[in-house]
Design goal:
Layout lengths: L2 H35 L5 H26 L3 H8 L5 H9 L1 H34 L4 H29 L1 H14 L5
Helix pairs in contact: 1-5, 2-5, 2-6, 2-7, 3-4, 4-7, 5-6
Length: about 180
């Protein structure tokens, strides 16, 4: 089988693999969120919401950085045996898949879980205030959207301007966790 045939075969399985990863990750993240939110008042859902917003922002930044980074400095790092060099090259060689996982899978799941967490927060706020549920729902949704979109916009700029640093930090974490070995 030629190299072209092999890459085509791998590419053909990618949508199915990413589907399985998305379903699995979504189930785990939803379970964790649901377990944390059960009979938890208002502060735990707010904390869970902030965690999922931050996760979405960080993974969006990683996905953008991986697509923007130049592999040259990482080839030099790998050649000198620097920790994270090999992992960074692997990330960049799979940038389309890494970007898809980070931006689409993790980012979208975080958005969905944020939405269900928002419903819990709205319900708790409605219990405490006599304001109409529509105003509370609009306010919470607008605030979550603003935090998510604004955070991603800020971090996209960092991801593009400092893509080498972002990829290197992720690669060092992967090296420490023995991922891609």
């Amino acid at each position: 089988m030629s190299g072209h045939d092999k890459s085509k075969k791998t590419r053909d399985h990618w949508p199915f693999r990413v589907f399985l990863i998305a379903v699995s990750l979504s189930a785990v993240m939803s379970f964790c969120s649901s377990a944390a939110l059960e009979d938890s008042g208002i502060w735990i859902p707010i904390l869970v919401l902030m965690i999922f917003i931050l996760l979405g922002i960080v993974f969006d930044m990683i996905g953008v950085a991986v697509t923007a980074a130049d592999p040259k400095p990482f080839h030099s790092m790998a050649a000198h045996g620097e920790k994270g060099g090999r992992e960074a090259i692997r990330l960049l060689n799979m940038s389309n898949k890494v970007s898809s996982l980070c931006n689409d899978v993790v980012g979208d799941i975080c958005g969905i879980v944020s939405g269900s967490t928002a419903a819990v927060i709205v319900t708790e706020l409605q219990r405490g205030f006599s304001t109409t549920s529509l105003l509370i729902s609009i306010g919470v949704t607008a605030l979550i959207s603003g935090l998510t979109i604004g955070g991603k916009a800020l971090c996209k700029r960092i991801a593009i301007d400092d893509c080498t640093k972002v990829v290197y930090r992720v690669a060092r974490i992967m090296n420490a966790l023995h991922l891609f070995r």
